[in-house]
TrEMBL record:
Signal peptide: none annotated. Pfam families: CAF1, zf-CCCH. One of its GO terms (biological process) is snRNA 3'-end processing. GO terms for molecular function: 3'-5'-RNA exonuclease activity; snRNA binding; zinc ion binding. This is C3H1-type domain-containing protein. Residues 153-181 form the C3H1-type domain. Residues 1-23 are annotated as: Disordered. It comes from Champsocephalus gunnari (Mackerel icefish). It comes from the Eukaryota. Belongs to the CAF1 family.
């Protein structure tokens, strides 16, 4: 397994430093240290659309990418025995959300969970608590507040491209809304309308 012992140079299975960050540059030291901590923790690894990320980490800090996918996945299972979870896969194939980009998935799941928690029922839900990082660590952590989804006032025309994919070629110059909260509320309204139409059709039959 990789190690950063004796000079902070991460090695592959043969003990030789590999990858584009094998030399002791400042950027490489920080990334190698992070990767080594991930391996040492032996905790579940959660990613979003993380196949390319895992291939990059493997190639840079573990070994050259193998020719066979089975070898790659077997090595990942050895490196992260607690499992690797991809939230994009979950949102697309398990939850079947309307969109699967990270901000949409996070805010939609958070909204659903908060509704279950305040409904007074026994449905499972989660509460999120963010770590209070020390001053030294705060410069490495990009913390962005995601407030609860609420009613959105003002602009109501949603950019369909951003709604579906989480990006828009027009960027900040787009005249339509890129507000994720508004997009979620629109999607829920559309889904509710579709369900109502289905019920009417069943009654008419």
């Amino acid at each position: 397994m990789p190690s950063d012992h004796e000079g902070n140079k991460l090695s592959n299975k043969t003990g030789n430093p590999i990858g584009p960050y094998a030399e002791s540059d400042d950027r490489g030291v920080h990334i190698r240290a992070l990767f080594t901590e991930l391996l040492r923790a032996r905790k579940p690894l959660v990613l979003h659309n993380g196949l390319i990320d895992m291939a990059f980490l493997y190639q840079s800090f573990y070994a050259h990418l193998p020719d066979r996918l089975t070898t790659f996945t077997a090595d990942l299972s050895e490196m992260f025995p607690a499992g690797i979870y991809d939230t994009k896969y979950v949102t697309e194939f398990e939850l079947r959300l309307t969109a699967s980009y990270l901000k949409y998935a996070y805010k939609k799941c958070k909204l659903d969970s908060s509704r279950r928690g305040t409904s007074g029922g026994t449905e499972p839900h989660v509460q999120l608590h963010f770590c209070q990082y020390a001053g030294q660590m705060s410069s490495y952590v990009d913390y962005r507040v995601c407030p609860a989804v609420g009613s959105v006032e003002g602009q109501t025309d949603v950019c369909q491209r951003f709604s579906a994919f989480g990006w828009c070629p027009n960027g900040s110059e787009c005249l339509l809304s890129h507000d994720t909260d508004l997009i979620i509320l629109h999607d829920e309204k559309d889904l509710g309308n579709k369900r109502t139409k289905r019920k009417r059709r069943k009654v008419e039959r």
